[in-house]
Amino acid sequence: VLVDEIDYLVMKKQTVLYNLFDWPNRGFSEKSPGQLIVLGISNTLNLPERLHARLQSRIGRDRCMYASYSIEESMNILKGKLSITDSNKSIFH
C-alpha cells in the first residue's frame, strides 16, 4: 500500500495512521499467506518525530530523501499522464 501526502492524515489521536501501519502486523499474526507492506510519502522531514510513540514503533526508522520536482519535470509528468506528445502544446489554458 502506498500512501502519498501522509502528513495530511496526522490528527490528534492518530488512530487512522496507527491502524494503517499496524495492518501488516495483524495479517502476519493471523498467519496470512500474503505479506503487506505500507509505504508512506510525506512532504515534511520531521513527520516521524511528530507522531505518538506507539505509532513511531510501527513505522520503523528508514527514510528515503528525494529532491522536489522542478517545474519542467512536473510539466513532463503531467503531459505524460495526459498523453500530450507535442512539447509546444500547453496543458493550461
What does this structure look like?
The protein has about 90 residues and is mostly helical. It is about 40% helix and about 5% strand. The protein has four helices and two strands. The protein has helices at about 15-30, 45-50, 55-60, 70-80; strands at about 1-5, 40. The chain has a two-stranded parallel sheet. Helix 1 packs across helix 3 (about 55-60). The protein is extended and about 50 Å long.
What's this model, at a glance?
The protein is mainly alpha-helical. Helices cover 40% and strands 4% of the residues. It has a two-stranded parallel sheet with strand order 1-2.
Low-confidence stretches: none
How is the biggest beta sheet arranged? Answer: 2 strands, parallel
Contiguous helical run count: 4
> Which strand order does the major sheet show?
1-2
How many angstroms does the end-to-end distance come to?
35 Å
* Mean pLDDT across residues: 81
Write the element-wise H/E pattern from the N-terminal end onward: EHEHHH
Shape: extended
How many β-strand runs? 2
Structure classification:
mainly alpha
**Beta-strand fraction estimate:** under 5%
Helix content: 25-40%
How are the secondary structure elements laid out?
Blueprint: E1 2-3, H1 15-29, E2 39-40, H2 47-50, H3 53-59, H4 71-81
Parallel strand pairs: 1-2
Helix pairs in contact: 1-3
Keywords:
4 helices; mainly alpha; extended; 93 residues; two-stranded parallel ribbon; 40% helix
